[in-house]
Amino acid sequence: MQTMQKLKARLSHWWYAAGAAVALAPASALAAVPSPPAPSTSPKANDAIAWFKGVFEDLSEVGILIVGVLLFMIGAVGMIWAVVQVLSNKGTIGDMARIGLVSAGGIAFGTYLLTQATGII
User: How many whole angstroms from its chain centre is CA 60?
Assistant: First the structure.
């Protein structure tokens, strides 16, 4: 019985040692990473026009991402709704095909916007 208790104590000691090693590993790994250089595109000091230009470009990228996500989500919900309406015999196939085509266009355009915005980033 004592050998079992000794084994449990030894295993718990190893377990805590492994946990401490895992907790300290990221800190020591990040200590060796050099700091990134300053970007060459940053505006010079007291250059308000360049600063506003950069802010406008960043906001336009965020806007493109938001519009792309909204179009994709609306298109996906429209496609699901059209399929459910057809399968439950609540809508005609022609009407639901129109909604499905518009939804597919929304998905395609949303995917295009997301691709363009992530390409810029």
Answer: 18
User: Could you tell me the maximum CA-CA distance found in the chain, to the nearest angstrom?
Assistant: 79
Q: What does the alpha-carbon distance between residue 31 and residue 34 come to, in Å, rounded to a whole number?
A: 8
Type of residue numbered 52: F
Task: Find out whether 100 and 82 touch, Cβ atoms under 8 Å.
Answer: yes
**CB–CB of 44/50 below 8 Å?**
yes
The stretch 20-32 carries a mean pLDDT of 57
Alpha-helix runs per DSSP H in 32-92: 48-87
How far is the C-alpha of 26 from the C-alpha of 24, rounded, in Å?
Answer: 6
Q: Among 5-9, 19-23, 59-63, which is the least confidently predicted range?
A: 19-23
SS3 assignment, position 8: helix
SS3 10: helix
* Tokens found for residue 56: 């406008």
Query: How big is the chain by its Cα radius of gyration, in Å?
Result: 28
